[in-house]
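To whoever is on call:

I kicked off a structure prediction for a single chain this morning and the downstream step that reads the tokens threw a length-mismatch warning. I double-checked the sequence; it's 141 residues and nothing unusual in it as far as I can see. Pasting both halves so you can look.
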Amino acid sequence: MHHLFFPFAHGLHFFPFYAFSCVFLIPYVFYLLTLNKALAKCAPETRTFEPLMIWLCLVPVVHLVVQFIVVNGLSATLRNEYMRRGIPLPEQEPGKQLGLFMCISVCCCVIPILGCLAVIAALVTWIMYWAKIAEYSRVLG
């Protein structure tokens, strides 16, 4: 009788998970679009990885490894592009230090107890890294 009146009630306990996922997924896609835009502004000969690699960050668990590849690759690509254009770099490896800290924080989120603090660090460094890459992209025009 319960399912007659509320046919989808059995799935309501997953609603908070789905709501959180959607709230997180939308900004994450915009973040990936920012990274893709920055890479697209770089000449193909300066790229150190393929743009499709960025979208592998959407695959659960795989992103834990791919994010390191993207951060390192984007840093090297931005460095190459800035050097090609003769634009002075404010740091030797653009965004790499902050990006690696973000990646490590994300990986630490799965560690019990430490995960609570790591989530905060990951969120803060993610936003900072996003802003930094957006600024590098803006300079490239």
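Update from on-call: the warning came from a stale cache, not from the record. Cleared it. Sanity check on the structure: The chain has one domain: 36-140.
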